[in-house]
Amino acid sequence: MKNESPSVTSTYFIELIKAYLQGTKTRKEILEETTEVLEFDSFLLMEDGIDVTYLLTEAARDMSETFYLDIVNNINHSTDTVPTRAGVIHHLQALLQGGISKQDLLEWATWYSIDEDQLSAGIFDDFTVEFFCLDFLPAYFAELSNKNFRQVLQLFTMNVNDPLKEKIAILLLLEKERQPFLFFLRNYIQSSNSIDTLDLYLMKKFGMDHQSFPYMQELTELKGHPEKLEVLLEKVMLQTEH
Questions:
Q1: pLDDT tens digit string along 156-181?
Q2: How many CB atoms lie within 10 A of CB 43?
Q3: Per the domain annotation, does 165 fall within a domain?
């Protein structure tokens, strides 16, 4: 056994677990940080992608059953155990710097699973983080490139303070989502389509109607001026590279 540091208490484990769940530490960082302090089950470590929170919990149980009970009680009754904006930024930076893999990012972002018939809105404190982790990343994981992740990182660090604008910008980073969006808007501003048609499109595309669409005023002003559509797109993309 490795020497147990006097500082290793249940609080030590709780802080590490919360740091991972929130995203401010990656799985790799926690394993490196604890290598001289904790001794994990060698058989568990052999399992590819083993949940680091499980490793920490089992290590705590090996040290003290009281530690284990403290962790269970604290984590189960805590509200600060979901991915955060700082956590998304940290994990994206680690990914782009080669510190973690794309799969590592997915496993962290989606550890909080929801049922197929459960709405994700409102689970996290930050709606944009929730959209990225539970909706966007799982749905488009296979096609996301490092360029896309750099774009997402840029959006998260801009602090737009408007979750609807952030959601739209993230989704439109993908060419296959952006081009149909432009096609629809061009058709809408050149035709006499009703507001109901717009609502149907916006609801299917972004989960919002024209009253909550944050660029409705600009879109209305574009009626009859399709040549100005690219200007609106730049605004919708929040000036991110595309």
A1: 999 898 999 999 999 999 999 999 99
A2: 8
A3: no
